[in-house]
Amino acid sequence: MPSPPVDPSTLRFAVLAVDVVVFALHEETLRVRLNPVDRPAVAGREGFPGGLVAPTESSEQAAARRLRDKAGIDPETVYLEQLHTFSAVDRDPRGRVVSVAYLGLTTIAEDVIDTDAADSDTLYSGSGARWQPMDDLPALAYDHDAMASVAGRRLRERLRATNLIGRLLPESFTLTILQDAFESLLGERLDRRNFRRRVQELGLVEPTGEERREGRGRPAALFRVAEADVRAIPLL
Amino acid sequence: MPSPPVDPSTLRFAVLAVDVVVFALHEETLRVRLNPVDRPAVAGREGFPGGLVAPTESSEQAAARRLRDKAGIDPETVYLEQLHTFSAVDRDPRGRVVSVAYLGLTTIAEDVIDTDAADSDTLYSGSGARWQPMDDLPALAYDHDAMASVAGRRLRERLRATNLIGRLLPESFTLTILQDAFESLLGERLDRRNFRRRVQELGLVEPTGEERREGRGRPAALFRVAEADVRAIPLL
DNA sequence: GGAATAGTGTCTTTCAGACAATATGTT
DNA sequence: AACATATTGTCTGAAAGACACTATTCC
Fold first, then answer.
1. Is the CB of B189 under 7 A from strand C?
2. Beta carbons of A128 and A70 less than 8 angstroms apart
């Protein structure tokens, strides 16, 4: 339905962008995906993967596309939800750029290379992009600091209220791993017996029937998140 | 503030709009503010108050401004929070218009005139704008139907989790009124004694010390919402 | 056998839900 | 006195929280 083309000189307009704050869990550490930002105006700082929205795509589509292009992550493997739209007039030195930010959850892909373990504990993933621990973020480009803060708060809210933890974990996992994940994400220590009772009675997880034997010690039963789609569960 | 040196012919851009879904409570009925939409393309349908975002304002500022201009409501009296950004490519027949939607809560102003009580039970407020019962919405312009649905869901979530009910009620109120409000908003009936115990033990309300005598029957103590700012309360 | 990890049951306390009688005002 | 509305307390069942020992495997 092609309509009267809008004349930008008479209409108010803005450049529309998306940014995606992608979280993943790596050995009990919550990490976010950072990309180098090459614009001169922001002087070598990093930022979340993102970019401009094309005239023919919605912001959701743009977010998925940018995940692939800018972060090399298959959007199919990422849970995305809209986070917040940032529209401060001067948030981008280039001009009026409004950004629709998305929250993303994923499992860290296998292409992750743990180079340079000495230099803090950064995980690199090629081309300078990296998974940075959420509690050790550098100063970011644009208003991505604020974005990070909003995203972190929202992530915790959602983890408490839904079964989204499943999107941060591998297909199957032991209850110990699940508990470690919650403890580290929510920053509180939980009783093992009560925790196991809860997650099973609430129907958050179900046994796969397999078990994992690893190192010494008794083998652990494997579980999966019971339902694949996002479900409201008043959790912990 | 002359605007950004962006050349629209080379950059992807969109027209940026805001829409505000303002809720108010009138005699236990949840109502939203509707305005006539005059664009030919949407043929006499109504929509939420809104409009384009100026190059010099954030979407928050635009939302406040539009509340005043389009709905004649003092933004100071309205609680606003960002709801969702709607960016489907064809959501506006005029072209690419992306809308940042806001959720608004307010107390119905005194300028409300209950004309035409026969014609359903619409409350008019001058210039064709009206407060329409949320459970009796007509088909709306653009994608405002979807907006209404998102806003309704979010409103109920927020009412359950915070003290925002205070933004829908007058300064002080009786516990009966508070309970009626919850019952109608959440669509469930609550036990009087348990309800009163809860709201007081949770610290949602505190007595003002005054009482209201009205009609026959025992006078009721007046309460106010204990804290003015938004607070998380796992409510009902 | 010792070390390491996984797994399990009970008791207590707290909170949610069901339930009905009394108090205070008006007419 | 009749009526209308507001206010209050107890009992019961369910869920949350504290708490320590047994089971299985590897070395």
1. no
2. no
Distance (Å, whole) CA A133 – CA A31: 4
Straight-line distance from the first to the last Cα atom of chain B, in angstroms, rounded to the nearest whole number: 48
- Render pLDDT for A51-106 as a digit per residue (tens, 0 to 9): 999 999 999 999 999 999 999 999 999 999 999 999 999 999 988 999 999 999 99
Evaluate if residue B80 carries a pLDDT over 50.
yes
The verdict on B93 touching A (C-beta cutoff 8 Å) is yes
For the segment B169-219, what is each residue's pLDDT rounded down to a tens digit? 999 999 999 999 999 999 999 999 999 999 999 999 999 999 999 888 999
Q: Which chain B residues are closer than 8 Å to A41 by Cβ?
A: none
Distance from CA of B121 to the nearest CA of A (A): 36
- Of A203, A201, A207, the closest CA to residue A175 belongs to A207
Residues 207-236 of B with CB under 7 A from strand D: 211, 215-221
B191 CB less than 7 Å from any atom of strand C = yes
Exposure string for A48-82, b = 16+ CB within 10 A, e = fewer: bbbbbbeeebbbbbbbbbbbeebbbbebeebbbeb
- pLDDT tens-digit series, residues B7-46: 444 456 789 999 999 999 998 899 999 999 877 776 789 9
- Both tokens of A209, joined, read 């029937």
State the pTM of this model.
0.90
**How close, in Å, is residue A198 to chain B by CA atoms?**
19
Comparing CB atoms, the residue among B12, B55, B94 nearest residue A16 is B12
Report the pLDDT value the prediction gives residue A48, as an integer from 0 to 100. 97
Query: Does B115 score more than 70 pLDDT?
Result: no
| Interface test mutation site (partner A, options B1, B66, B85, max chain A beta carbons within 10 A) | B85
Nearest nucleotide to A176, CA against C1' atoms: C6
The residues with which A73 forms a beta bridge, in sequence order, are none
Cα–Cα distances in angstroms (integers) from residue A234 to residues A161, B6, B19, B129, in the given order:
5, 47, 31, 40
Q: Strand ranges (DSSP E) for chain B?
A: 15-26, 29-36, 46-47, 50-52, 79-86, 97-105, 123-124, 130-133, 173-174, 205-212, 220-225
User: Which residue would you say has higher pLDDT here, A230 or B202?
Assistant: B202
pLDDT value of residue A215: 80
Interface test with B, best of A13, A92, A235, A236 (most B CBs within 10 A): A13
Q: Which residues contact A190 (CB under 8 A, 6 or more apart)?
A: A179, A182, A183, A236
Residue B176 DSSP SS3: helix
Other CB atoms within 10 A of residue A184 CB: 15
Taking CA atoms, what residue in B is nearest to A11? Answer: B15
Cα–Cα distance, B103 to A7 (Å, whole number): 30
- Alpha carbon distance B67, B58 (integer Å): 14
